[in-house]
Amino acid sequence: MNRKILNNQYILMINRYFYPMKRENIDQLVKVEYLQSVSCPLQDSQFSFFQIVYVLSGKGFLKINNNMASYSEGSLILLTPNDQHYLEIQENTDLLLVKFSERYVKNYKWNSINSMQCLLYGASFLSGCILQNKPDIVLVKSIVDSLLHGIHHPDLYQDELTLTYVNALIVIAARNISKMRAEHITSNTDKRVIDIIDYIQGNIHDPALLKVSSIAKKFGFSETYLGSYFKKQSGETIQQYILNYKMRLIEHRLLFSDMRVNEIVTEFGFSDESHLNKFFKKRHHMSLTEYKKGKEPQVVA
Q1: Does 1.20.120.790 match the CATH number of domain 192-300?
Q2: What is the tens place of the pLDDT at every residue in 102-156?
Q3: For every residue of 8-68, which 3-state class applies, written as one string?
Q4: What's the pTM?
Q5: CA-to-CA dists, residue 169 to 40, 97, 130, 172, 185, angstroms
Q6: CATH of 8-183, one of 3.40.190.10, 2.60.40.10, 2.60.120.10, 3.30.70.270
C-alpha cells in the first residue's frame, strides 16, 4: 500500500488519543476509519465501543490491560469497551479501525452465534493478534481491502456493503477467539466445562435456563455432580460463576452503554430496580448511580 503524507485531519485524529484515560464515543453503530500514525505512543485510551484494529503496515508494541504484545503488518487486534491500552510505535504504522457499538452486537440477529457479545468480551483475556486460524488470514485481507476501497472510492449502497464486510470481520474475530480460548485449556481440564460456560454465557439473560437443575439436565449430569465437577474444573461454584459473569456485564452496561436502569432490570430478569440495586450494592457497597458516577471517565468530543 502506498504511504500517504499525513494531513491535518490525520494529525488531529492521532492527537485526540494522547490524553490519558480519556473516553471516546462514536455517534453511530458502526464506523470504519483509515489512520496513519507516526512514532508516538497511544497512551491510556479507553473507548465506549468495540474496536477491531488491522495493521496495514508498520510495527511496534501494544499494551492491553497491562499485557504487552508486539504487532506487525497483518496483525488483527480486538479491543473491548473496558480495555485500557496504549500503542508504542517503532515504525510508521497504517491502521484500519473498525468501530462498532455494544448495542449493535447485542441487537444484530446472528444466525448461529447466540453469545456473540459474550464471545467478543473474551478478548479481554487475550493480548496481541487474535488472527491465529491460518485460513482466515486471506479472508481478513480481502475484507480489509474491500473496506479500504469503500473509504477511498465510495459508491452506491456503500453503507450496506460496509456493514456486510464488518459483520464478516466480527464473525471471523469471534471464531478465532473461540479457538484461542479452547487452546488455553490445559491438558488436565475437561473440555466439557467450556461447553457449560458457553451455555451459561449464551443464556445469561434467562434465569430459568440458569437454574442448576436446567444446566444439569442439559448436560446429562446430576445436580450434585454438576456442582462438584464445575468447582473442580473452574475453581468456583457454578452459582458464583453465574453471578460474577452477570455482574461484569451489568458493569459494562453502566459504564459503556446508554441503557437505563429499567432496561438492565428487564435484560437480566430482575423483578424491579430495587432488586437490581440490592444485588449490585451487596457486591460493590454502593448504588448503581454512585458506581457509574465514580467510574465515569472524561469524554472526548
Answers
A1: no
A2: 778 877 777 665 567 666 776 655 567 888 888 899 999 999 999 999 999 999 9
A3: HHHHHHHHCCCCCCEEECCCCCEEEEEEEECCCCCCCEEECCEEEEEEEEEEEEEEECCEE
A4: 0.61
A5: 28, 12, 12, 5, 25
A6: 2.60.120.10
